[in-house]
Amino acid sequence: MIKIEKRNDVPMALYFFTPFIAIILTILGGGIIFYILGFNPIEALKFYFITPISNLYGFSELLLKATPLCLIAIGLSFCFKSNNWNIGAEGQLTFGAIVGGGVALLFYNQEGFYILPLVIVAGAIGGMIFALIPAILKTYFNTNEILVSLMLVYVSKLLLDYLVVGPWSNPEGFNFPETRQFSDSSRMPLLFEGLRIHAGIFLALAAVMLSWFILYKTYLGFQIKVSGLSLKTAKYAGFKGKTMILVVFMISGACAGLAGVGEITGPIGQLHRMISPDYGFTAIIVAFLGRLNPFGIIFASLVVALTYLGAETAQIFLQIPKYTGQVFQGMILFFLLASDYLLFFKVKILNLKKNELRH
Amino acid sequence: MYKNFFRYLISAIFLLGFSVNSNADFKVGFVYVGPTGDHGWTFQHHEGRNAVEAAGIKTTFVESVPEGADAERVIRQLAQSGHDLIFTTSFGYMDPTNKVAKDFPNVKFEHATGYKREHSNVSTYSARFYEGRTLLGHIAGKMTKTNTIGYIASFPIPEVIRGINAMTLAAQKVNPNIKTKIVWVFTWYDPGKEAEAAQALIDQGADVIMQHTDSTAPVQTAEKAGVWSFGQASDMQRFAPKSILTSIIDDWAPYYVERAIAARDGTWNQQDTWHGLKEGMVAMGPYNSAMGADLVKEVEQLQKDLASGKVHSFTGPIYDQKGNILVAEGKVADDGMLAGMSVYVKGVEGDIPK
Questions:
Q1: B30 touches chain A (CB under 8 A)
Q2: Is 90 exceeded by the pLDDT of residue A90?
Q3: Contact between chains at A322 and B63 (C-beta distance less than 8 A)
Q4: Domains in chain A: boundaries
Q5: Superfamily of B129-250+281-339 according to CATH
Q6: Interchain CB contact of B67 with A (< 8 Å)
Q7: Chain A to chain B, count of Cβ pairs less than 8 Å apart?
Q8: Lowest mean pLDDT: which of A238-247, B72-81, B130-139?
Q9: For the domain bounded by B2-127, which CATH number is listed?
Q10: Residues 6+ apart with CB under 8 A from A333
Q11: pLDDT, mean of residues B277-301
Q12: Does residue A285 have a pLDDT over 50?
């Protein structure tokens, strides 16, 4: 008979070490998959994890790809730490991009140093407002935030579809579903000539610092952590649960909105239907892989960003199907959850005698 | 003296041989918007790539590249990793293609269905799919009993509107009572939405369904409902053998092979290609025997006439929905008008989404 028991003493060091175990297992698992598919596993893994970042351009692309993932995951960490399951970051990202993009279009062909900050703030507010919907419904009407935030993803994507096909479509664009290219005054400044990495990375770094400060140095952070550990304790301590839920959702939404606005004012430069390859969902993996810790999230966002780039490189050089990237992301989460389970629980195999079984 | 001369000669020959050898390194890259197994748009581009490969030229492809921020990186990586000619096979790659082309003047770029050629190393190409639509219209007009044709449309861009108009005009010619009902699905590939749209059109009385989207869901829905349908982009007959009357097939292979050889041999030039039935970029699938021998003969003749230029899909008089004349009697629409087409012809129901 197998018995599963909770472990009482989980060492903190091991808790932060399991993500590395998960990554190593993923790489091993990937090697096995490549071998079964008929590729040389060492060569395939090299093209997957080393080639994409073997030059400056590749490294800058890694940072570019990690920026939105990091921003969203930082926001999500506030929600997840306090037991609020915001699954709709993709929708908050989209709505932030819509609001920010709307401001950028409003200032089309105008000059002014204040335009870009306005666009960015508008994007953050957009994401914040959109995240407030599931938060308010949860606090005042007791709805399930997982469902509401997830369903709102489709609402925001359909709204974006409507806008780029209809009222905001480029008047000179033959009805193609996209807006005008934003003017330079509402584009993120590039950090280096010839590379696409832009000032948005500083927003992500600022979010990391700020979230560390809030989570570990403020009363709000304390409330969030206690609520995450035990809602009853939080109530007993007299924390105002409703306000906290609203605040964590607002932070989360603002971060997702910033990520969206960073994409459209950075590498994309306009609004169209494909502004995010599901960053909002992938960021959930990033948040957990980073242990909901601000610095862990930086690391996790780089790892997950690499699985995107690696999938492209592996297909270019070895013609490995590009969907292996998603397989890798899935494996990371799977191995992380599995090793967490073994970390928090121990499995005992009991040898029962016959007479014991009769009972 | 002579010794040196020979040494130079040998090294010159060697160098020459080397530069000829570099032809063997000639590589062509393809960027696809969907998976190679979509049995529609990307599937056909992939078939074109196979033909290039069969012609002895090395190729690479990257599938399911989102038309957002990722496209530029993929195109750039292909250019950086020694590809000499790169086909970007979706409209959304237009700006990234031109951006990368600027930084790689020695690499040739071919962008499908776009209109921007900002640098001399960027060509564009597309097919006159509307010629195929004319044939579908003729067949649909003859086959319908309810005089209602259902049309699943993707985005209100000129290419799609051109297809709707060409089909309607041809159907009206053989059946003046024809009505075209349209459902806009605002996607190129979404089997669920496409199937719903097909069902909605069938419920509204359409007994012929056609699509300007890429999945096989509409023809399968039509097969189940027992109405006629047409395959799109590739021969979809095996997905709905009873229902499909024929398919419009995008045959990119001849063009891809020609352009790849031209780029390899150094004869590649910037151009804007718009090929149709004549050049074989648009081809028709096998005709369903349910059409009857007479209709098949008629359609085959029309196909020949369209290819030879004897018949044009947009021959006047053509009126818009309000009855204003678009193309005068005896005239044909020029390419400029076709490229920017943004109004329905008379007989199409509803408004173009704005």
A1: no
A2: yes
A3: yes
A4: 1-37+339-359, 67-319
A5: Response regulator (3.40.50.2300)
A6: yes
A7: 82
A8: A238-247
A9: 3.40.50.2300
A10: A285, A288, A289
A11: 95
A12: yes
